[in-house]
Amino acid sequence: MSDEPNSPSNDEQSLAGKVGSKAARKLKARRSGVPGVWFGLGMMGLIGWSVVTPTLVGAALGLWLDSRYPGEHPWTLALLMAGLALGCLNAWHWVANQDKAMREDQNDDGQ
């Protein structure tokens, strides 16, 4: 029992906390809005360019090296594949960070 007769009980405090968190979540959802189709297409384009750019840079560097320093093994294919691998790692890292941020946001809203 508490010393003050008008102090709220633990059940009332937890109910108030739940109601407050739900209200805050609804307000946040209204402010942020629902991402549209263009948002999704933009994200696909962003991921695509993050793969294509290093691939093309690797191919261009390989062509330049092959023209300057011809040798037994072509640089173009090796650097093209290295650029592709780097681009895929870049896209994977970006998507993993976005997924982590979304999960943290959901966990913050759920508490």
Task: Please characterize this protein's 3D structure.
The protein is an all-alpha fold and 111 residues long. The chain has a domain at 38-110. The protein contains three helices and no strands. Helix 2 (37-68) runs antiparallel to helix 3 (75-110). The protein starts with 9 loop residues before the first helix and ends with a helix.
Can you tag this structure with a few keywords?
single chain; 111 residues; mainly alpha; 82% helix; elongated
Please report the distance between the alpha carbons of the first and last residues.
Answer: 27 Å
Major sheet: none
Strands, count: 0
Instruction: Report helical residue fraction.
Output: over 70%
The dominant shape is elongated
Order of helices and strands: HHH
Mean pLDDT, all residues: 81
Which assembly state applies to the chains in this document?
Answer: single chain
The number of distinct helices, counting runs of at least 4 residues, comes to 3
**Gyration radius, in Å:** 26 Å
Class from helix and strand fractions: mainly alpha
Strand content: under 5%
Uncertain parts: none
